[in-house]
Amino acid sequence: MIMFMRLDRLLCEMNIGSRSKVKAYITKGQVLVDGVKAVKPEMQVDENTVVIRYCGKEYRYRPYVYYMMNKPPGVVSATFDKKDKTVLDLLRERLREQSREEGMAAEDITVPVKDIFPVGRLDKDTVGLLLLTNDGELAHRLLSPKKHVPKTYLVRTDRPVGEEGLTLLTDGVAIGENEVTLPAKVSVADEENTYFITITEGKYHQVKRMFQAVGAKVIYLKRLSMGTLMLDENLREGQIRELTEKEVADLC
Ligand code: URA
After folding, report:
1. Which is the closest atom of ligand 1 to the Cα of 122?
2. Where are the beta strands (DSSP E) in 35-126?
3. Percent of the chain with pLDDT over 90
4. What is the 126 CA–ligand 1 centroid distance (Å)?
5. For residues 251 and 149, is the Cβ–Cβ distance under 8 A?
6. What is the torsion angle, in degrees rounded to the nearest 10, for the CA atoms of residue 67, residue 69, residue 74 and residue 79?
7. Three-state DSSP class for 85?
């Protein structure tokens, strides 16, 4: 399907520069559109197929972006918050840093994060895997209660959970909802009072409430995976990276 967009807007969305800068690049003849020098910023191009060359680099437009974040503690899973730093603030910071590292001048850096949102919520003190995207359909599929997408967490508690507690967590535990929780996979990790749990629902504070129901308080919670997507072990807390094509294809 042909989708037209103004050339200067497209270059901005590709993070090539600010609107005024990209207009200047175009009028100076520095931009090739499908191999042909472009001179009009208002030129309409097909965003789905166009190949841009600027400064020896090739660019293609991607309407959807997918970032993996290793969410640090103290940051809220929201696009905006009056009080707290959000994962979107953090994404902006990291993209800015990456553009700087790629040699972009500060005044040229635009951070196109409009329409990007976190797929689901992690509590402010929870760390680990968070997917950020502008692909609403994928987010819907991952979050839909009907799809039962598995999410695995590493959980540390203030006291050991006994055999009975582990069985309850596995079979279903009452957390104050109409129904007990759906069956979960639970295993004991190598460290003291530490467990892996895989749940297929996404109720508010679910993991904390499940452990509370068996008499243990969660003191550390880290999400390790969501569906087929696994947290990249090389990402330190607060870091982000784009998903690989395979990761996106597997999720979709
Ligand atoms: N369950 C919780 O209790 N908190 C989270 O952040 C995620 C799952």
Report:
1. 6
2. 36-37, 44-46, 51-54, 57-60, 66-71, 117-118
3. 81
4. 7
5. no
6. 10
7. coil
Instruction: Record the pTM.
Output: 0.86
- What beta strand segments (E) does 36-184 contain? 36-37, 44-46, 51-54, 57-60, 66-71, 117-118, 127-133, 151-157
DSSP secondary structure letter of residue 107: G
Residues facing residue 52 across a β-bridge:
33, 59
Tell me the pLDDT tens digit for each residue of 116-166.
999 999 999 999 999 999 999 999 999 999 999 999 999 999 999 999 999
**Look-up of token digits 């596995």:** 170
Catalytic residue among 123, 135, 171, 190: 123
Which run of H or E residues covers position 160? none
Any catalytic annotation for residue 250? no
Q: How many CA atoms lie within 13 A of 208 on its CB side?
A: 12
**Cα–Cα nearest to 132, from 205, 229, 197, 15:** 229
Q: Which atom of ligand 1 is nearest the CA belonging to 123? A: 6
Take residue 216 and report the two structure tokens written for it. 């243990």
Length of the chain, in residues: 252
Q: Compute the average pLDDT of residues 12-24.
A: 88
